[in-house]
Specification:
By secondary structure, this protein is α+β, with helices and mostly antiparallel strands. The protein contains seven helices and eight strands; from the N terminus they run H-E-E-E-E-H-E-H-H-E-H-E-E-H-H. It has an eight-stranded mixed beta sheet with strand order 4-3-2-1-5-8-7-6, with helices on both faces. Strand 1 and strand 2 form a beta hairpin. The protein is globular. Belongs to the aldolase class II family. It comes from Methylobacterium oryzae. This is Class II aldolase/adducin N-terminal domain-containing protein.
Length: about 260
């Protein structure tokens, strides 16, 4: 169930730095593309999940999908530009309440997390419902996440105030992926492309693990030395691979769903 933000925050003293129209437009297109492609892959849950990204030149402002729209409906122009006080600077509508309280605190407390994607995508959420470590080092796709995962063990209900957002931000530590037990996952990235890339491959890794576990046979773990080596290999090219991944998504969407650019 989604909730609207009930009232805006106190208007802050904003930076006088003007918005770079070209930079904002690129960020809007990139984030809208991620939302549309997530919908194609079944990674959303109704109108309850949310992606956000801080503007490149304005770390005090972030884009987020508006309350009430499915991921498949989002366009570049329908994304809301918000400050950390709950005020909508550009756009029509309001952010979903949990989206604001979680994402504003994550971006405020973790400046390196310039993009934050939260979903209840099915396979990753299934692993978040189990006791113990969620992701096992048994499949090659999973190995890219070695040393990059945190687990929030303390589900505390819906994030309807900033204190819950702060708690989740603190649980993330320096991780790029947070499994929120009994809830879902949060993926953090230095760029929109990197957050998207990790979100996509996290669900693929989780899907493979759940399918393997469903056979009832024991998982064959990769030796730790090899896990570390593969994780380092993945890290070396991850940013460029992520950029190219998102560019491919935008090309397909521009052909099949050009409305996302509006």
């Amino acid at each position: 169930m989604a909730h609207a933000v009930t009232a805006p925050g106190t208007p802050p003293a904003r930076s006088n730095e003007p918005l770079n129209a070209d930079s904002v437009r690129r960020a809007r297109i990139d984030l809208a593309a991620c939302l549309r492609w997530a919908a194609r892959n079944g990674l959303e849950e109704g109108i309850c999940n949310h992606f956000s990204a801080v503007l490149p030149e304005r770390p005090d402002l972030f884009l987020v999908n508006p309350y009430g729209l499915a991921f498949a409906e989002v366009t570049a122009s329908s994304l809301l530009l918000c400050d950390f006080h709950g005020n909508v600077v550009e756009g029509d509508g309001q952010p979903e309440a949990t989206a604001f309280h979680i994402h504003a605190e994550l971006h405020r407390l973790k400046p390196r997390a310039r993009a934050a994607f939260h979903t209840h995508m099915p396979y990753s959420t299934a692993l978040a419902m189990l006791e113990g470590e969620p992701l096992m080092w048994a499949g090659q796709t999973a190995l890219r996440f070695y040393g990059r995962i945190a687990v929030d063990e303390d589900y505390n209900g819906l994030a309807l105030d900033s204190s819950e957002g702060r708690r989740i931000a603190e649980s993330a530590g320096e991780a790029d992926v947070v499994f929120l037990k009994n809830h879902g996952v949060m993926v953090l990235g230095e760029t929109i492309a990197e957050a998207w890339d990790d979100l996509y491959y996290l669900e693929r890794a989780a899907q493979a693990q759940v399918l393997a576990m469903s056979t009832g046979r024991a998982l064959k773990a990769v030796p730790e030395a090899i896990v570390k080596r593969v994780a380092a290999q993945e890290a070396a090219g991850r940013a460029e691979s992520a950029r190219l991944h998102l560019e491919s998504v935008k090309r397909v969407l521009a052909r099949d769903e050009p409305a996302f650019l509006a």
